[in-house]
Amino acid sequence: MDLVDLIVTPFYILVILLIAYGYQINNKKNFLVANYFLGSYFLRILGGMAFACVYAFYYGGGDTLNYHHDSTIISGALRNSPLQGIELLFTSPNLKNTNTYEYVIRMVFKSDPAAHFISALAAVFNLITFDSFLATTICFSLLGFWGNWQLFKTLCKLYPSLHRQIAIGCLYLPSILFWTSGLMKDTLCTVALCFLFSAIVQIYALKNSTLRNYLIAIISIWVLYTLKIYILICFIPTISIYIFSFYTEKIKSKLLRNTAKPFFYLLAISLSYLAFDFISQNDSKYSLEELESTAKVTASYIGRISIQSGGSFYTLGELDFSLSNIPSLAFRAFVVTFYRPFFWEISSPLMLFSVLESIYFMYLSFLLIRYIFRHALTKEKIFTPFTTFCFLFAITFSFVVGVTSNNFGTLARYKSLMLPFFVCGVYATVHQKRINNIVFNESLKTKTDLINSQT
């Protein structure tokens, strides 16, 4: 960071906060905006600033600074030679292209289309931030906030009485405030995943099958496919079960409904396999034959870099992907994703937030396990289609990131976009009776009506 950051950033923060304040004043009758918008918006700006400062001054480098380096090359080209700049903006770097060679040769991510996607978007922001790393990072933090706010509104539409708990999961977790607020792939993946899930809920749960929602879903899938395919690999099978649950509910006969469920589950698995096969054909490292090798190589690389840089290294032991060892490996991956680092594993001040977050997840797990034991012998339904999706997605995602990270910082970054679903899944489960049978007092009824009518 340099002088331009000190000059430009305070001005943009002031303008952004004034716009946010004006938006809240104009929507003061909207319950969610009046109670959650401005505070969480401001926290997200702080998260973006913290992210930029930590990488610039504490780590002394990293992918985020490399993204910014490449973005300044693209924005410089847009100013000096608009045609070349536009070509850099919309095409992947290619050293064989003589038209853009002078720019591409100076880029860090010459052969990584996904990384170039981030740099190209940052270059657009650079045009209004004068290439300020800190100001551009704040723009990305607001993108991340946009995604989480959309998810928050959607979940409040489903569970209006749980707006406080949903706010914790979507807006206030340290991992979300920090790791999805930077100039990184994770920020855009968060936006895409939140909008994809929200569009699916709008289409199937809220019966709002507009062209807009279908376009949002398609664009979100494309962004995830471009940046991090493994998110789709985890998301597609689990969301398919959620989607097909709406078709089974249309069957009035209980006998036919129970008979049809296995068929729909099989269909969901089949569609997931076809999607997985399509992904693997376009990227061989995600094929069934190469998946184990990809996971081992990724874990080994991150672990080696972590040790060399003195980072917070962890290991799950030998990565044995045999059928008999998968349950054990999945359990260890789940534990490290949600409950570690422990207090005695703290190796830097930043890890304190991860430890506090781990304690919170232990508390949530206690609530969930207690609820399951209390209702296991009753005829009450413990899990709904929504909570089933949340937990299956959390388990699947924790397996992928827990096995491949080998570094607590990397793990915190990777898992951040999945955490809202786990948190909201727990609260939607343990407060199920309150959701279904609550008798609202006038104050709460008013709040619920506002949420239902205005989100």
Task: Write a structural description.
- The protein has two domains: 1-202, no CATH class; 287-455, no CATH class.
- It is mostly helical.
- Helix 1 packs parallel to helix 7 and helix 3 (63-80) packs across helix 6.
- The radius of gyration is 23 Å and the shape is globular.
- The protein has 21 helices and no strands.
What are the main properties of this structure?
single chain; 455 residues; mainly alpha; 21 helices; 77% helix; globular
Quick structural gist:
The chain is 77% helix and 0% strand.
Write down the secondary-structure element order. HHHHHHHHHHHHHHHHHHHHH
Shape: globular
Task: Specify the structural class.
Answer: mainly alpha
Number of domains: 2
Helicity level: over 70%
Count, helices? 21
Unreliable residue runs: 438-446
Overall pLDDT confidence = 85
Largest sheet: none
What is the radius of gyration computed over CA atoms, rounded to a whole number of angstroms? 23 Å
End-to-end Cα distance, whole Å, is 39 Å
The proportion of strand residues reads under 5%
Could you give the count of β-strands?
0
